[in-house]
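Weekend entry, working from home. Most of the wet-lab plans are on hold until the incubator is repaired, so I used the time to fold the two sequences that have been sitting in the queue since the last round of cloning. Logging both here for the record. First:
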Amino acid sequence: MDNITIKRLVSTLEFDAVCLPPDKQIPLHTQSTWELSCVITGEGTRLLGDVSERFFPGDTVLIPPGIPHSWYFNREKTDADGNIENVSIFFPNDLLTNLQACFPEMCAPMIHISALKDALIFSGETRKEIYSTMLRMRNETPTKRVLSLLEILLFIAQDKTGRVISGIRPLNRQEMRMTQIKSFVKCNYMHEIKIDEIASHIGMNRSSFC
């Protein structure tokens, strides 16, 4: 694998480790890249398209491109500083193609992953391996992270226990907002919820929201 190929792989991989207040988490959105996310601290409601589920620390999910998603964190379930923590890896389909070119032995696993259309929720040994590897990646160089991602992708390709979240349908703008509101209320019902707070959360002014 030459230096040009390594640089190409590194440039297409984005690793994000965040520690922030629950209300600063990115709202419901879609993206053109794959996302592999793992919750370290926090719990609440996870949205994948129109599928809403509870999540807890250790929640590990692979999301194909184009699926609306978000994590709504309970403000009571944070660390001592009032923060939640998660780590995510973002990568385009091109990375899977480039890995096949660099490592012919990886063709079958990469083709298997590329064909996935639904989100996968991991459990058992696979979740443990992915979780520990992603935590380790926080202290790695960008080049080393490519190798760690390769390790993770092998775990995913060989996994037989991942739970598929199927039946996910695209949401229009109004449906996305209503889903955001419902999830926000589920995660914050123990507090007094103000109209201004919900309106701000979904990016609307008070009068438009009302």
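Second, folded right after the first finished:
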Amino acid sequence: LGLNRPLLVQYLDFVWSVVRLDFGTALTSGERPIRDELAERLPATMELTIPAMLLTALVGVFSGAYAARHRGSAQDYTIRAGSIVVYSIPVFFMGLVFQIIFSVRLGWLPLSGRMDTLLLTQFESRTNFYVLDAILARNGPALRSALAHLLLPALTLGLSLSGVFVRLTRANMIEMLQQDFVTAGRARGLPEKRLVYRHALRNTFIPILTMIGLQFAILLAGAVLTETTFSWPGMGRYLVDRIELRDYTAVQSVITV
């Protein structure tokens, strides 16, 4: 293992291995490299996180813009209060509530997993992005199943952070609606919706895009709780399983990625 060499040499060897995505072998997986296990699970996490990020941005940005347009009204107060409530609810609790409502009581959506078991046994995934693979294979039943399984986890993860964008967008939109170009547009008789959603909203995207990049990392951290709640076989679920097994090599690799 190279433990007889100086600590500095050991550390540099470790850094060089990480650069080459060589994380060694998990303590609980025999001779299988950790890199292979992460390669199977990272697409699942990305397939969950990307739609959740889109949902977060769409709900947060347009709700914030709507609240700014109706500043001081009942709609404004309702949206602001709702954003605080949604942001305050723990991700796993929101996921459990959605499971009880939409899966157990209504039976509209599946409870857990990424695809129906019967379809999964006949489905060949090349990239481990089930939605993409189903589209490329033109497999309608597999695509519908993958999207149905994706909806609840993505909704849970996306709504949990949408409150941040509601507050951010509203604050920037209120400032932007007081600018001279908005006043000039109103004087020329431009419709209010066009001023708000086309001109003013476009100029507020700089801080919003910055926040999206920062929140994406938080979404990956939130995926740990979401994947555990919905039994989603991604990086988060893998991390929890390896923590329970005290497999520090695998845990360290997941955290690094």
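Plan for Monday: verify the second prediction. Residues 140-176 form the longest helix (37 residues).
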